[in-house]
Amino acid sequence: MNGRLALILAAALVALAALALAPFYLGPYQIGLLIGLTGYVTLSSAWALFSGPTRYVSLATVAFFGIGAYTVAALNEVLPYPLVLAAAAAIGLAVALVVGLSTLRLAGVYFVIFTFGLAELVRQLVTWYEVNVTGTLGRYIFMSFGPEQIYWQLLALMAITLFISWWIGRNRLGLALKVIGDDEVVAAHCGIYIARTKLALFALSAVIITLVGAIQAPRWTYVEPGIVFNPTLSFLTLIMALLGGANRLWGPALGAVPLFLLFEWLSARFPDHYSIILGLLFILIVFALPGGVAAFAERMFGQRKPTPQMPGAESALARDTAEARR
Protein backbone atom coordinates (compact mmCIF):
# COMPACT_ATOMS: atom_id res chain seq x y z
CA MET A 1 0.00 0.00 0.00
CA ASN A 2 1.54 3.32 -1.06
CA GLY A 3 1.47 6.46 1.09
CA ARG A 4 -1.24 8.27 -0.90
CA LEU A 5 -3.60 5.30 -0.74
CA ALA A 6 -2.99 4.91 3.01
CA LEU A 7 -3.76 8.61 3.54
CA ILE A 8 -7.02 8.38 1.55
CA LEU A 9 -8.03 5.24 3.45
CA ALA A 10 -7.31 6.89 6.81
CA ALA A 11 -9.34 9.99 5.85
CA ALA A 12 -12.24 7.80 4.72
CA LEU A 13 -12.23 5.88 8.03
CA VAL A 14 -12.18 9.12 10.03
CA ALA A 15 -15.10 10.51 8.00
CA LEU A 16 -17.01 7.25 8.43
CA ALA A 17 -16.44 7.32 12.21
CA ALA A 18 -17.62 10.96 12.38
CA LEU A 19 -20.77 10.10 10.41
CA ALA A 20 -21.44 7.12 12.69
CA LEU A 21 -21.24 9.34 15.79
CA ALA A 22 -23.44 12.09 14.31
CA PRO A 23 -26.80 10.77 15.70
CA PHE A 24 -25.52 11.28 19.26
CA TYR A 25 -25.28 15.05 18.64
CA LEU A 26 -28.17 15.73 16.23
CA GLY A 27 -31.92 16.08 16.55
CA PRO A 28 -34.65 14.01 14.84
CA TYR A 29 -34.91 16.32 11.80
CA GLN A 30 -31.14 16.24 11.13
CA ILE A 31 -31.09 12.45 11.54
CA GLY A 32 -33.92 12.24 9.00
CA LEU A 33 -31.82 14.28 6.55
CA LEU A 34 -28.84 11.97 7.12
CA ILE A 35 -31.03 8.94 6.38
CA GLY A 36 -32.12 10.51 3.10
CA LEU A 37 -28.57 11.49 2.20
CA THR A 38 -27.00 8.09 2.92
CA GLY A 39 -29.89 6.38 1.14
CA TYR A 40 -29.46 8.40 -2.06
CA VAL A 41 -25.65 8.20 -1.99
CA THR A 42 -25.98 4.40 -1.77
CA LEU A 43 -28.64 4.26 -4.49
CA SER A 44 -26.72 6.45 -6.93
CA SER A 45 -23.43 4.61 -6.22
CA ALA A 46 -25.14 1.24 -6.75
CA TRP A 47 -26.74 2.54 -9.97
CA ALA A 48 -23.36 3.80 -11.23
CA LEU A 49 -21.76 0.47 -10.35
CA PHE A 50 -23.46 -1.08 -13.41
CA SER A 51 -24.72 1.81 -15.54
CA GLY A 52 -21.57 3.95 -15.24
CA PRO A 53 -18.98 1.83 -17.05
CA THR A 54 -21.43 -0.10 -19.30
CA ARG A 55 -23.49 3.01 -20.25
CA TYR A 56 -26.73 1.04 -19.86
CA VAL A 57 -29.18 3.63 -18.51
CA SER A 58 -31.48 1.77 -16.12
CA LEU A 59 -34.78 3.19 -14.82
CA ALA A 60 -35.56 0.04 -12.83
CA THR A 61 -34.13 1.46 -9.59
CA VAL A 62 -37.55 1.95 -8.03
CA ALA A 63 -38.62 -1.60 -8.96
CA PHE A 64 -35.88 -3.14 -6.79
CA PHE A 65 -36.26 -0.47 -4.10
CA GLY A 66 -39.99 -1.23 -3.85
CA ILE A 67 -39.38 -4.98 -3.81
CA GLY A 68 -37.12 -4.53 -0.79
CA ALA A 69 -39.63 -2.30 1.03
CA TYR A 70 -42.59 -4.57 0.34
CA THR A 71 -40.65 -7.67 1.39
CA VAL A 72 -40.11 -6.09 4.81
CA ALA A 73 -43.78 -5.08 4.96
CA ALA A 74 -44.90 -8.63 4.17
CA LEU A 75 -42.45 -10.58 6.36
CA ASN A 76 -41.68 -8.31 9.34
CA GLU A 77 -44.21 -10.10 11.57
CA VAL A 78 -43.21 -13.67 10.70
CA LEU A 79 -39.39 -13.60 10.46
CA PRO A 80 -36.52 -12.08 12.48
CA TYR A 81 -35.23 -8.84 10.96
CA PRO A 82 -31.89 -10.26 9.67
CA LEU A 83 -33.79 -13.03 7.87
CA VAL A 84 -36.17 -10.45 6.40
CA LEU A 85 -33.19 -8.56 4.93
CA ALA A 86 -31.75 -11.84 3.60
CA ALA A 87 -35.10 -12.68 2.01
CA ALA A 88 -35.30 -9.22 0.41
CA ALA A 89 -31.78 -9.59 -1.01
CA ALA A 90 -32.60 -13.07 -2.34
CA ILE A 91 -35.81 -11.86 -4.04
CA GLY A 92 -34.00 -8.87 -5.53
CA LEU A 93 -31.24 -11.18 -6.80
CA ALA A 94 -33.73 -13.60 -8.35
CA VAL A 95 -35.63 -10.81 -10.14
CA ALA A 96 -32.36 -9.24 -11.33
CA LEU A 97 -31.13 -12.54 -12.78
CA VAL A 98 -34.41 -13.17 -14.62
CA VAL A 99 -34.54 -9.60 -15.96
CA GLY A 100 -30.84 -9.54 -16.81
CA LEU A 101 -30.89 -12.84 -18.69
CA SER A 102 -33.80 -11.65 -20.83
CA THR A 103 -32.89 -8.00 -21.42
CA LEU A 104 -29.16 -7.34 -21.20
CA ARG A 105 -28.85 -8.12 -24.90
CA LEU A 106 -30.87 -4.97 -25.51
CA ALA A 107 -29.03 -1.68 -25.79
CA GLY A 108 -29.63 2.02 -26.01
CA VAL A 109 -33.19 3.34 -25.85
CA TYR A 110 -34.67 -0.17 -25.88
CA PHE A 111 -33.03 -1.02 -22.55
CA VAL A 112 -34.17 2.31 -21.05
CA ILE A 113 -37.77 1.73 -22.11
CA PHE A 114 -37.75 -1.84 -20.84
CA THR A 115 -36.44 -0.91 -17.40
CA PHE A 116 -39.03 1.86 -17.08
CA GLY A 117 -41.74 -0.61 -18.09
CA LEU A 118 -40.39 -3.15 -15.61
CA ALA A 119 -40.86 -0.74 -12.72
CA GLU A 120 -44.45 -0.07 -13.76
CA LEU A 121 -45.10 -3.80 -14.27
CA VAL A 122 -43.89 -4.65 -10.75
CA ARG A 123 -45.98 -1.85 -9.26
CA GLN A 124 -49.13 -3.00 -11.08
CA LEU A 125 -48.54 -6.64 -10.11
CA VAL A 126 -48.14 -5.76 -6.42
CA THR A 127 -51.24 -3.54 -6.55
CA TRP A 128 -53.28 -6.29 -8.22
CA TYR A 129 -52.12 -8.85 -5.65
CA GLU A 130 -52.93 -6.63 -2.70
CA VAL A 131 -56.38 -5.63 -3.97
CA ASN A 132 -57.53 -9.03 -5.27
CA VAL A 133 -55.78 -11.48 -2.92
CA THR A 134 -55.23 -9.78 0.44
CA GLY A 135 -58.16 -7.38 0.09
CA THR A 136 -56.13 -4.33 1.08
CA LEU A 137 -53.72 -1.91 -0.59
CA GLY A 138 -51.18 -0.93 2.07
CA ARG A 139 -49.32 -2.62 4.91
CA TYR A 140 -48.09 -1.47 8.30
CA ILE A 141 -44.51 -2.02 9.49
CA PHE A 142 -43.83 -2.15 13.21
CA MET A 143 -40.16 -2.64 14.11
CA SER A 144 -38.45 -2.36 17.46
CA PHE A 145 -35.72 0.10 16.39
CA GLY A 146 -35.69 3.82 15.67
CA PRO A 147 -34.26 6.16 12.99
CA GLU A 148 -30.72 5.95 14.47
CA GLN A 149 -30.53 2.22 13.75
CA ILE A 150 -31.90 2.77 10.23
CA TYR A 151 -29.22 5.40 9.63
CA TRP A 152 -26.39 3.16 10.88
CA GLN A 153 -27.56 0.31 8.64
CA LEU A 154 -27.65 2.61 5.61
CA LEU A 155 -24.24 4.04 6.52
CA ALA A 156 -22.74 0.54 6.66
CA LEU A 157 -24.35 -0.37 3.31
CA MET A 158 -23.05 2.89 1.79
CA ALA A 159 -19.50 2.11 2.97
CA ILE A 160 -19.72 -1.43 1.57
CA THR A 161 -21.05 -0.12 -1.76
CA LEU A 162 -18.23 2.44 -2.09
CA PHE A 163 -15.66 -0.24 -1.20
CA ILE A 164 -17.09 -2.58 -3.86
CA SER A 165 -16.97 0.25 -6.43
CA TRP A 166 -13.35 1.02 -5.47
CA TRP A 167 -12.36 -2.65 -5.62
CA ILE A 168 -14.01 -3.25 -9.01
CA GLY A 169 -12.34 -0.15 -10.45
CA ARG A 170 -8.91 -1.49 -9.55
CA ASN A 171 -9.09 -5.02 -10.96
CA ARG A 172 -9.69 -6.79 -14.26
CA LEU A 173 -13.48 -6.74 -13.84
CA GLY A 174 -13.50 -2.95 -13.89
CA LEU A 175 -11.29 -2.91 -16.99
CA ALA A 176 -13.59 -5.44 -18.68
CA LEU A 177 -16.61 -3.24 -17.94
CA LYS A 178 -14.92 -0.20 -19.47
CA VAL A 179 -14.12 -2.15 -22.63
CA ILE A 180 -17.73 -3.37 -22.81
CA GLY A 181 -18.95 0.22 -22.42
CA ASP A 182 -16.66 1.42 -25.21
CA ASP A 183 -17.37 -1.32 -27.73
CA GLU A 184 -18.93 -4.73 -27.09
CA VAL A 185 -17.56 -6.15 -30.35
CA VAL A 186 -14.01 -5.29 -29.30
CA ALA A 187 -14.71 -6.71 -25.84
CA ALA A 188 -15.86 -9.99 -27.37
CA HIS A 189 -12.71 -10.18 -29.52
CA CYS A 190 -10.63 -9.60 -26.35
CA GLY A 191 -12.11 -12.74 -24.82
CA ILE A 192 -14.37 -10.97 -22.30
CA TYR A 193 -17.50 -12.88 -21.28
CA ILE A 194 -19.86 -9.98 -22.00
CA ALA A 195 -23.18 -11.49 -20.91
CA ARG A 196 -21.74 -13.00 -17.72
CA THR A 197 -19.95 -9.78 -16.73
CA LYS A 198 -22.96 -7.54 -17.34
CA LEU A 199 -25.30 -9.94 -15.55
CA ALA A 200 -23.04 -10.16 -12.47
CA LEU A 201 -22.81 -6.37 -12.11
CA PHE A 202 -26.52 -5.83 -12.82
CA ALA A 203 -27.43 -8.39 -10.13
CA LEU A 204 -24.98 -6.90 -7.60
CA SER A 205 -26.34 -3.39 -8.22
CA ALA A 206 -29.94 -4.64 -7.90
CA VAL A 207 -29.27 -6.44 -4.59
CA ILE A 208 -27.80 -3.27 -3.06
CA ILE A 209 -30.76 -1.17 -4.25
CA THR A 210 -33.17 -3.78 -2.86
CA LEU A 211 -31.43 -3.63 0.53
CA VAL A 212 -31.72 0.17 0.59
CA GLY A 213 -35.49 -0.18 0.15
CA ALA A 214 -35.66 -2.89 2.82
CA ILE A 215 -33.66 -0.89 5.36
CA GLN A 216 -35.61 2.33 4.78
CA ALA A 217 -39.06 0.68 4.87
CA PRO A 218 -39.50 0.78 8.71
CA ARG A 219 -39.06 4.54 8.58
CA TRP A 220 -42.47 4.99 6.91
CA THR A 221 -44.47 2.66 9.24
CA TYR A 222 -47.09 2.35 6.45
CA VAL A 223 -46.25 1.47 2.83
CA GLU A 224 -48.32 1.05 -0.32
CA PRO A 225 -47.36 0.66 -4.01
CA GLY A 226 -47.86 4.35 -4.75
CA ILE A 227 -45.23 5.24 -2.12
CA VAL A 228 -42.46 2.68 -2.60
CA PHE A 229 -42.81 2.35 -6.40
CA ASN A 230 -42.79 6.09 -7.09
CA PRO A 231 -40.88 6.55 -10.41
CA THR A 232 -39.45 9.86 -9.15
CA LEU A 233 -36.91 7.83 -7.16
CA SER A 234 -35.47 6.32 -10.37
CA PHE A 235 -35.11 9.74 -12.01
CA LEU A 236 -33.56 11.31 -8.91
CA THR A 237 -31.00 8.51 -8.65
CA LEU A 238 -30.14 8.87 -12.34
CA ILE A 239 -29.76 12.66 -12.13
CA MET A 240 -27.59 12.46 -9.01
CA ALA A 241 -25.21 9.95 -10.59
CA LEU A 242 -24.98 11.95 -13.83
CA LEU A 243 -24.43 15.25 -12.01
CA GLY A 244 -21.53 13.95 -9.93
CA GLY A 245 -20.07 11.65 -12.60
CA ALA A 246 -21.18 8.05 -13.00
CA ASN A 247 -17.67 6.90 -13.94
CA ARG A 248 -15.98 8.25 -10.80
CA LEU A 249 -15.87 6.60 -7.37
CA TRP A 250 -17.01 9.73 -5.52
CA GLY A 251 -19.08 11.12 -8.42
CA PRO A 252 -22.50 9.79 -7.31
CA ALA A 253 -21.92 11.11 -3.77
CA LEU A 254 -20.92 14.53 -5.14
CA GLY A 255 -24.18 14.64 -7.06
CA ALA A 256 -26.44 13.10 -4.39
CA VAL A 257 -25.61 15.41 -1.47
CA PRO A 258 -26.36 18.84 -3.05
CA LEU A 259 -29.26 17.58 -5.16
CA PHE A 260 -30.97 15.87 -2.21
CA LEU A 261 -30.79 19.05 -0.15
CA LEU A 262 -32.02 21.10 -3.14
CA PHE A 263 -34.93 18.75 -3.79
CA GLU A 264 -35.91 18.82 -0.12
CA TRP A 265 -36.10 22.60 -0.32
CA LEU A 266 -37.93 22.67 -3.67
CA SER A 267 -40.50 20.00 -2.72
CA ALA A 268 -41.36 21.93 0.46
CA ARG A 269 -41.76 25.30 -1.26
CA PHE A 270 -42.91 24.38 -4.78
CA PRO A 271 -44.89 21.12 -4.39
CA ASP A 272 -46.98 21.75 -7.53
CA HIS A 273 -44.02 22.59 -9.80
CA TYR A 274 -41.51 20.16 -8.38
CA SER A 275 -41.58 17.70 -11.32
CA ILE A 276 -41.18 20.52 -13.88
CA ILE A 277 -38.07 21.83 -12.12
CA LEU A 278 -36.77 18.25 -11.95
CA GLY A 279 -37.09 17.81 -15.73
CA LEU A 280 -35.42 21.15 -16.49
CA LEU A 281 -32.55 20.30 -14.16
CA PHE A 282 -32.06 16.93 -15.88
CA ILE A 283 -31.82 18.64 -19.29
CA LEU A 284 -29.39 21.25 -17.92
CA ILE A 285 -27.09 18.58 -16.43
CA VAL A 286 -26.98 16.54 -19.64
CA PHE A 287 -26.05 19.56 -21.76
CA ALA A 288 -23.82 21.51 -19.36
CA LEU A 289 -22.02 18.70 -17.51
CA PRO A 290 -22.02 15.59 -19.72
CA GLY A 291 -19.20 14.00 -17.70
CA GLY A 292 -20.41 15.17 -14.30
CA VAL A 293 -18.97 17.51 -11.67
CA ALA A 294 -15.99 15.23 -10.94
CA ALA A 295 -14.86 15.17 -14.59
CA PHE A 296 -15.42 18.94 -14.89
CA ALA A 297 -13.28 19.58 -11.78
CA GLU A 298 -10.53 17.33 -13.16
CA ARG A 299 -10.48 19.30 -16.40
CA MET A 300 -10.51 22.65 -14.62
CA PHE A 301 -7.82 21.90 -12.07
CA GLY A 302 -5.73 19.52 -14.17
CA GLN A 303 -5.93 16.52 -11.85
CA ARG A 304 -5.64 14.15 -14.77
CA LYS A 305 -1.98 13.28 -15.06
CA PRO A 306 -0.50 12.13 -18.34
CA THR A 307 -0.10 8.41 -18.73
CA PRO A 308 3.25 7.43 -17.19
CA GLN A 309 5.78 5.86 -19.51
CA MET A 310 8.06 3.00 -18.73
CA PRO A 311 11.62 4.02 -17.74
CA GLY A 312 13.75 4.25 -20.84
CA ALA A 313 10.76 4.22 -23.15
CA GLU A 314 11.52 7.70 -24.49
CA SER A 315 15.15 6.87 -25.26
CA ALA A 316 14.13 3.58 -26.87
CA LEU A 317 11.65 5.44 -29.07
CA ALA A 318 14.33 7.94 -30.08
CA ARG A 319 16.74 5.10 -30.89
CA ASP A 320 14.14 3.29 -33.02
CA THR A 321 13.35 6.54 -34.86
CA ALA A 322 17.01 7.17 -35.56
CA GLU A 323 17.47 3.62 -36.89
CA ALA A 324 14.42 4.04 -39.11
CA ARG A 325 15.85 7.26 -40.57
CA ARG A 326 19.13 5.51 -41.36
Automatic annotation (TrEMBL):
InterPro entries noted in UniProt: ABC_transp_permease, LivM-like
Superkingdom to which the source organism belongs: Bacteria
Region Disordered: start-end pairs: 305-326
Bilayer topology: Multi-pass membrane protein
Subcellular location: Cell membrane
Keywords recorded for this protein, A-Z: Cell membrane, Membrane, Transmembrane, Transmembrane helix
Protein name: Branched-chain amino acid ABC transporter permease
Biological source species: Nitratireductor thuwali
Source taxonomy: Bacteria, Pseudomonadati, Pseudomonadota, Alphaproteobacteria, Hyphomicrobiales
